[in-house]
Amino acid sequence: MTSTVKQATEPTSAHTQGLGEESSIWFQLTPLLKEGINNPMQILMQMAERYGPVIPVNMANQRVVILTQPEHFKYVLVTKADTYTKYFDGLKPIFGKSMITNDGALWQKIRMPQQPAFHPDMFAEYIPYFLAAIRTKMDIWSQLAKSGDAVEMVEQTWTLAADMICKALFDRDMPFNPHFVFKCVKTYTDVMNHKEIRLKKQSGEVFEMTEQDAAKAMQVWASVPPEVMAADPREARERTLLKMIEAAVADPEIPEFDQQQAIDELKQYLWAGTETTALTLAWALYEASRYPEAAERIRKEGEQVYGDRDPTASDYSALAYTRAVVQETMRLYPPIWGLIRVAAEDDEIGGTKIQRGDRIMLFAYGAHHNPRFWDEPEEFRPERWVAGAAKKQVKYSYLPFGGGKRSCIGGAMSQVENTLALSLLLRRFRPEYVGKDPAGLNATVTLTPKGGLKFKIHELS
Ligand code: HEM
């Protein structure tokens, strides 16, 4: 059985539009990535300390207002959610016109038919497919352990996350080479690459090479969803996200949900659902390597909870410490370190005038690292999540998945994926971080490790 949804083509010129342009906020962020800065987040944290909770900054021709306080996060995400709309300049080639980029009634129409795929009741159905993907990764790691080769962990976890999404949500084995696709998307989302394109444009240097590379990368990216749709189903399951998307295309009540929409929804899941999940797991493995006692506790917990059989949905609930490691990792390294909105009208936040068109940045990383909300915020302490400390949490001081009606559709599912992956991988392997310690950070669209996270894999006897 193959998908009824057919490929729609996009003009090549659309592939490189946006990200390198001066007006894109991602380009404007590049000064934060200057050589020699190990953690660009600290610059924003110092600004917050010095200039207070609402910081208007003029970046090129654009006013950006940085918010650092939970009550202002709530104001923008919940109280005035319709005034502060989504911002996606420069990311269209990645996301197309998928739901994540839309607002208002259209967003609701697109999200509604897909929402049931993310209900917690579905997780038990997905777990066997997550486990199948994790087992494939274990076979690869077993080979890597034998060869002794160093690996880039984010690439390892990205390929795992993509496999989990394809198997569980689309009923497909990955019909593409995930390492190749990973590199293509990285070419595009790495803000520095785009700065290069623009700087070369300005100085009249040969920029064509880099721009062509970006265009080629985006062409590869555009070809992935149609490949997924056309691939044979693994098991012809009836209740999958892909089936829900196909049903929405066939539904005359939602004419907006056309074939291109379906393709773009897949693009969205293959990036929003993989990059973030992969970064979290890679950072969790980094912390587990630095704190062997945490890794040992994860192993013991797995042994006690599910022993030698396959973990189930109720086992996931019982893996409290492993889940806490995932939560603490997202506190320290929130993949989406800043949420961005556009002010649709004039307003005022904390006594500062907001002008229509201002870009508003909710500095999530800053709240996650603020000593007012967290004891010893720079410490990796998973225990803070298990000892009931979560009860004392200030609302909106922790938002790895955003907040309000636009919060992440797959957040709860990603915690299941990462908790099971962390537990199973650490029970069989000891991934050893062999890069610079501490690892540096890059503030690209997501919070990425500067220069990657190099690991050696050891198989436990
Ligand atoms: C650790 C893993 C993840 C993190 C940290 C994360 C983070 C986020 C954040 C912060 C947002 C809101 C962005 C904003 O308000 O501007 C978001 C939205 C979204 N995420 Fe995730 N995400 C994760 C996993 C996933 C997964 C597994 C999926 C699906 C398979 C997914 C799909 C989406 C979608 C579709 C949206 C847009 C929702 C909407 O606009 O209605 N994410 N995510």
Write up what this structure looks like.
The protein is an alpha+beta fold. The chain has one domain: Cytochrome p450, CATH 1.10.630. The protein is 49% helix and 11% strand. The chain has 19 helices and twelve strands. It has helices at residues 25-28, 41-51, 70-79, 92-95, 104-111, 123-147, 153-170, 178-189, 191-203, 208-230, 241-250, 259-272, 275-290, 292-305, 313-318, 320-332, 364-368, 383-386, 411-428; strands at 54-59, 62-67, 84-86, 150-152, 339-343, 347-349, 352-354, 359-362, 429-433, 441-443, 447-449, 454-459. A five-stranded mixed beta sheet has the order 1-2-8-5-3, sandwiched between helices. Strands 4-12-9 form a three-stranded antiparallel beta sheet. A two-stranded antiparallel ribbon has the order 6-7. Strand 1 (54-59) and strand 2 (62-67) form a beta hairpin. Helix 7 (153-170) crosses helix 8 (178-189), helix 10 crosses helix 12 and helix 13 packs across helix 14. The structure holds protoporphyrin IX containing FE (HEM).
Overall helicity: 40-55%
Specify the overall morphology: globular
Please give the oligomerization state of what you see: single chain
- How many domains? The number is 1
Report the strand count. Answer: 12
Strand order of the largest sheet: 1-2-8-5-3
At the first level of CATH, the class is: Mainly Alpha
Report the C-alpha radius of gyration, rounded: 22 Å
The span between the termini is 43 Å
- Tell me the CATH superfamily: Cytochrome P450
**Count of DSSP helices?**
19
Estimated share of beta-strand residues: 5-15%
| CATH topology assignment | Cytochrome p450
* Molecules bound to protein: protoporphyrin IX containing FE
Could you list the spans in which at least 5 consecutive residues all have pLDDT below 50? 1-16, 204-209
Coarse structural class? alpha+beta
